[in-house]
Amino acid sequence: EVQLVESGGGLVQPGGSLRLSCAASGFTFSSYAMSWVRQAPGKGLEWVGRIKSKTDGGTTDYAAPVKGRFTISRDDSKNTLYLQMNSLKTEDTAMYYCAREGIGGGAFDIWGQGTMVTVSS
Amino acid sequence: DIVMTQSPDSLAVSLGGRATINCKSSQSVLYSSNNKNYLAWYQQKPGQPPKLLIYWASTRESGVPDRFSGSGSGTDFTLTISSLQAEDVAVYYCQQRSNWPPTFGQGTRLEIK
Residue B97 is nearest to which of A45, A63, A107, comparing CB atoms? Predict the structure, then answer.
């Protein structure tokens, strides 16, 4: 079964750090670009960033609100995607989803269940 | 960034009825090199992650019922549910991938009348 499972969310104070993980199974993880998408409580979807496959260069891109604070990495030997979040702000409070970029024009065809990050003092 | 605007914000349709959700992009999402619209539709039920329904504006994802269809090109797109079922109650989002960064519409909440 194709599956993504996020972990690492929790409560953190403003200015703090957190690292999220996304474990992939059921497909060749190394072949796909992967993204993080977040959703603030009661709000819509916001793309956070992505990492290409190593075959495509392994480069990363980030949304403007998180650039310079968040870092995406991957360990293809462990089939795991990471999101390192530093200098967290209250506005980063959201459910964080990892998502696979499929062959259909890069649409997000597989999503994890999400992990909740709450930034509050 | 390309702004995606959905209409209406919410919609109530009778069981068995037709639901139509519109999505307008601030710039064309048609790739001239392959003549494909990089527009996707997602369904999100309460407490669940989004689920891909349609990509390339009109191609149904595997396993998606054929009552879901997508149409449109350039800047104007439509998601149609031909015969609404109770399990279709959800929020629906459009998303573009033709220009970086990927952007989503604000969502349309679909309910049963």
Answer: A107
Distance from CA of A42 to the nearest CA of B (A): 10
> E-strand spans in A1-121?
3-7, 10-12, 18-25, 34-39, 45-51, 60-62, 70-75, 80-85, 94-101, 108-111, 115-119
Q: What percent of chain B has pLDDT over 90?
A: 96
* B2, B94 contact by CB (below 8 A): no
- Put simply, the answer to whether A113 touches B38 (Cβ < 8 Å) is no
The confidence score (pLDDT) of residue B100 equals 87
Q: Residue A111: its chain B contacts at CB < 8 A?
A: 49-51
pLDDT in tens, B68-81: 999 999 999 999 99
Chain A residues in contact with B9 (beta carbon < 8 A): none
CA-based angle B68:B47:A17, to the nearest 5?
A: 120
Q: SS3 for B105?
A: coil
The C-alpha atoms of residue B78 and residue B57 are separated, in whole angstroms, by 8
Neighbours of B17 (CB within 10 A): 13
Q: What is the pLDDT of residues A62-83, one digit of tens each?
A: 999 999 999 999 999 999 999 9
Chain B residues in contact with A94 by the CB 8 A cut-off are none
